[in-house]
Amino acid sequence: MKKLFFNIFILLLVLVTSNFCLAQNALRPNENNIETTKTEKIIQDEINPFSLRPIPKSHIAFQKSIWLQVSFKQKSNLPLWYAGHELSKFLIENALEGNITAYTDDKLETILSKNELLESLKAEENFDSNSENELEEEKTEFAFNSDNSTNYNQNDSTQKLIDFSELSILEIKEDYILDIQHSRMVHDVIAFTLILPQNSTRFTKKVVSFSYKEIIEKLYRPLKEDYVVIETTKSNGHIPNLETLIDSRFFHGYIVKYDNFKDEYFEDQYDTKKESFIKCMQYHEKLIEFEGCLWTY
Fold this sequence. Notes:
Elements (H helix, E strand, L loop, with lengths): L1 H31 L1 H11 L15 E12 L9 E2 L2 E2 H10 L5 E2 L7 E2 L1 H7 L10 H17 L1 H9 L11 E11 L4 E13 L8 E7 H9 L6 E5 L4 E5 L1 H6 L6 E5 L7 H4 L3 H22 L3
Antiparallel strand pairs: 1-6, 1-11, 2-3, 4-5, 6-7, 7-8, 9-10
């Protein structure tokens, strides 16, 4: 009888120890993977630091970067360019005062100092001007140098700056995102770039870029005004602030580029401006069709 109880005790002891070992081995992989799962979650939940309302990567099912060009001279874009508050002048003045950061391009990686920004704002002449004009300029420069070389150097250092009213094109870089968490398409604006358009004496020039997030957070949200009052002799108008204008898409622009490995604009991909403009419109229609098909069952 004692042997029977002893054998039962040994058998139970073996079963308990074996189950304990199995349970311990089963827990070890989870303990080892705690750090990896944490890092994976961190990677998945990365956000764009330049996004005004960042969306975690784990919520993004589709993303495409597109560039739009907005002309301030169009009537539909007048809220961005009304008298006394031209957007380009407003942004550059705040950048020179140090209220916002100026960048070389819309990648927002290289910061422009105040002197570099002033250098970028200097008026430049077109190299393809007529030969007669070039000869006249060379003659005047030679005569000016022969009269007083020191004054020429001073005049070159204080070269005339661009008239801010001539910066009539705004290039908007935005991410077109499908947010699966909220089941919606999002236009996540990243950067503004001010462009000096081409004319008879110069080429098209990208002058400076700004972070849209910084513009809104530092220049517009502190005002705590939903509308801007425009005082005129005829009537008092009300225009929504920049954040409301962009969020509500109260502007008109053309898609000029989408992210591609060559980083080419539509103008670079096609021979004529007419053909590139048609392709711009077709690409915009494809985006609308893509968004419409997402909600079709």
